[in-house]
Amino acid sequence: MLYKIEDLSLKQRVADTVKDAILSGSIKPGEKIPEEKISEALGISRTPLREAMNLLVNYGLVNVVPRRGAFVSHITPEEVLDILMVRMTLEPLGAEIAARKRVRHDRFIGDLKELHTALRNKELGDGSETDIAFHQVIAEASGSPTLLSVMLPLFYRSVLAMAYSSLVPGNRQESLSDHDKIIRALATKDAEGARIAMTEHLMQVMSNVKKGYKEA
Questions:
Q1: Smallest Cα–Cα separation from 134: which of 160, 164, 163, 98?
Q2: 184 and 99 in a common domain
Q3: pLDDT tens digit sequence for 175-205
Q4: Is residue 102 assigned to a domain?
């Protein structure tokens, strides 16, 4: 769903709106992005939209083809596994650092529990955005701008592949159980436990994605 942006032409706000449409599945991988329709729906000119497309290219969500337009990125099995390997290296570190943080700790844990509840209540196969938001909150809580800037494009690209993971029976409950363990470790400021819980979770995600590609 696209909502008109009143009195705003900043490319970041436009990029965020289009990004949300992609991550929610309103615009699917391989589909051409309807730039004219989006410009009209948001009440903006084509210039900020095209600037926003360049940001989404940097996020790995969009490919711009000369004289053809912008398309939502496809993602190959090899790319998915590569992304997950990098996430397995960086995310456990982010979780470990976040567990050691004392500033706004209660609010951070509250945000995670709220997202976890929302994910539990989602329909099967309809929780990709919420799942990524869960992981993003942890990366943000690490307080490392460098870590977050590296992780954000990986999170967004991961959403494009999560449909394959959802094909594996039992994956949803495994993921929810993993999130419970991560939250418990973070809530008790168990840095080592948070690192291990995140590592084990991402290993399971990788295993499920591999199985899902075989089922697809």
A1: 98
A2: yes
A3: 899 999 999 999 999 999 999 999 999 999 8
A4: yes
